[in-house]
């Protein structure tokens, strides 16, 4: 039977596009059943990592949570860090896919930016402990998550540039990176404590204002 923690994680996962988004954005290896099994192991592992931390989580913990055999586990993952790395990659894929989907229906650039910021914080706070754990791990230069964080920031920067300025834009890429760092830092601060709903909404407003002020051209 699925625990309340797993149910909450699965709800967020499906809200972001779920198995279909992973299959469309993945590496293309294996049939659909392979994607489903991998995703199931990841989803089951999230509450375990969040509750026990990286150091104290064992492969046996992940086997028990996912209810899979050791043979099945090692068919898809080399070790527990491989699972965590896969969770991080999946989280990035789903969030970026949702940002892209939002482009068409958001209307103005300002509306898209506010919607993107709201989605970013809603997602992070919905599954807060694992996001905080992965963000802190990804900040370590020697972590396998670090290169994925770098690529995620580059992809998000390209998405901002394409949506807001198009080809030929001369804006320094560091502008985008700095704004993404600001969102990441704000998320970590909110996740470090029991942030109230009001504080979270205030953060969305402030970060939305910041991105709009920095990226949207104003007519004079």
From TrEMBL:
Organism of origin: Metapseudomonas resinovorans
Domain of life: Bacteria
Record domain HTH tetR-type: where: 35-95
Pfam entry (one): TetR_N
UniProt keyword annotations, A-Z: DNA-binding
Lineage: Bacteria, Pseudomonadati, Pseudomonadota, Gammaproteobacteria, Pseudomonadales
Residue runs in coiled coils: none
Full protein name: TetR/AcrR family transcriptional regulator
Regions recorded as binding DNA: 58-77
SUPFAM superfamilies, per database record: Homeodomain-like (SSF46689)
């Amino acid at each position: 039977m699925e625990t309340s923690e797993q149910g909450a994680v699965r709800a967020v996962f499906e809200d972001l596009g779920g198995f279909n988004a992973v299959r469309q954005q993945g590496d293309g290896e294996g049939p659909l059943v392979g994607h489903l099994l991998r995703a199931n192991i990841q989803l089951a592992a999230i509450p375990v990592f969040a509750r026990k931390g990286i150091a104290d989580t064992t492969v046996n913990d992940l086997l028990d949570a996912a209810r899979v055999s050791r043979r099945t586990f090692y068919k898809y993952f080399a070790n527990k860090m491989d699972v965590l790395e896969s969770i991080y990659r999946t989280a990035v894929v789903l969030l970026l896919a949702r940002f892209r989907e939002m482009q068409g229906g958001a209307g103005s650039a300002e509306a898209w930016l506010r919607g993107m910021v709201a989605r970013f914080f809603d997602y992070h706070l919905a599954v807060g402990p694992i996001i905080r754990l992965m963000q802190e791990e990804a900040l370590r230069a020697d972590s396998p998550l670090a290169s994925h964080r770098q690529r995620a920031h580059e992809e998000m920067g390209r998405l901002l540039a394409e949506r807001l300025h198009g080809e030929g834009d001369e804006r320094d890429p560091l502008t985008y990176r700095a704004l993404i760092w600001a969102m990441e830092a704000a998320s970590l601060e909110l996740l470090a404590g029991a942030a109230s709903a009001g504080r979270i909404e205030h953060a969305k407003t402030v970060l939305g204002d910041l991105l709009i002020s920095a990226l949207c051209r104003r007519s004079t």
